[in-house]
Design goal:
Layout (H helix, E strand, L loop, with lengths): L1 E2 L5 H12 L5 E4 L6 H9 L6 E4 L12
Parallel strand pairs: 1-2, 2-3
Length: 66
């Protein structure tokens, strides 16, 4: 599951709740320096690790395609 806007708000909550429910979560945000709240919430929920990636859909040259 890919979640955008995971640095705060609904994106953060969706990432944590989904990981707790057993989903494989890729939590994305524009600026990885804002990931502290997500990391704290994951730690508090007992989630060992999340796949956190930078994603800014306005920067086409930075988007990798499989």
């Amino acid at each position: 599951m890919i979640v955008t806007g995971a640095s705060s708000g609904f994106g953060l909550l969706t990432s944590i709740e989904s990981a707790e429910a057993g989903f494989c979560v890729v939590a994305s945000m524009r600026d990885l320096s804002r990931r502290a709240n997500l990391d704290q919430a994951a730690t508090a929920a007992g989630i060992a690790s999340l796949d956190v990636r930078a994603l800014d859909v306005t920067r086409f040259d930075e988007i990798s395609v499989c």
